[in-house]
Amino acid sequence: MNSLFSKKLVIVLVIVVLASVVGVGLFMSKITSQKPIQQPELTLNLVPTNQTVQLNQSMEVVMSVDAGNFDVSFVDFTLAYDKDRLNLESFAPSANFNVPILTQLDNSGIFRVVLGNNSTNKLTGNVEVGTLHFKGISAGDGILNLSAKEVTVRTNPPSDIATKPTQTVLKVK
Hints:
Elements: H1 2-33, E1 41-47, E2 51-53, E3 58-66, E4 72-81, E5 86-93, E6 99-104, E7 110-116, E8 126-136, E9 140-153, E10 159-160, E11 162-164, E12 166-172
């Protein structure tokens, strides 16, 4: 009788182990077949786009981020520009950002600005970051490429959101 009991116990254990293996396999296939969650992406803007100016004429370009419904609290932008065609004369941050952290303006062809917003005002939709003032110094196409190292939005906890870079051309004649 003891031998019959042990055989039944072995059969039950084998069934339990097989059911567990099948269950884990089904669970893993369900997890791996799920589509990844799409992360939101914010769009960076330079306005105006494709402007033409005369040699030695000044022009303004506004930097902004289309934040949608997100409340922007921090930006870290880098602008690469053609230093042989354009002279970056100044940058005026928007009143939206009340905490200037870093502004690197040295006419090396790379401009970096880091700004924060610690006010209770929500920055959603198309959020102006600031205005760049360029002067055309040599004829040709001056290309501007704007990218973000970081854009932080107020969520709980605060999070960084991916961004789409942008490009514009300032034609100097």
